[in-house]
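Repro:
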Amino acid sequence: MTGVVATPGTSAKPTAIVFDLDGVLYVDHQGVPGAAEALSDLTQRGYRTVFATNNSTKTPEAVCQDIAERTGFTVNRDAVVTSGMATARYLASEAPRCFVLGPPALDASLRAEGIDVTTDWRSAEAVVVGLDRDLSYRRLADAVLAVGAGARFVATNVDSTYPTPEGLYPGGGAIAAAVQEATGAAPEVCGKPYQPMRSLVRSLIGEGSAWVVGDRPETDLAMAQAEGWLRVLVLTGVTTRREVESVTDLADITIESVADLPAILP
């Protein structure tokens, strides 16, 4: 175990561990070394594990498959929460007809909650924006037109980037920012660290305390702080050692990798 930085009073034993995915368990298609062993260790010791991602491009089933293929660890679908799921649950009570600037998995999450998805911006009551790797100018323009005509503007998350072996790629937040810049409207945000995602994560944790393991202070660790959970920062994603050394109070505990986590848990 190397480079562990902890603040005083962080040794209380949690009942659950909440993991981010991209930048924590894997980077793009490459698993973080030691991730599977760490998860197996925690499971054997009786910790409840929850996997919460701002990535709306995957269904929970696909997330489970990604974790298995990239790390070798098998995850139960009921332990997974995505920002697409949080967005669908957030909109379910009103079920507005949605124009989606995002992936098919986001469409599926919305439809699973009884929400109608339309490709006609003129009939849209809400515009839902996620990471859209097939983004076109025409569809971006349609989203802007719909918001300009009065449709609600909802973002699955506002993560500006996500990590890959090549470096940082633009995330769903970069696309939401384009719509916001063109319309002047700020989105209702559903992913970490906002309330819709926190509510879903809390429903999986149940009673007790939690540690949140993430690579983004502004999303993963901000969610932990809002809920009174302990913040564990890993340096395998978007946050660098230099940032940790130059900014105070980024996290309660900083570790190089999720592989170091079992050694610091009570």
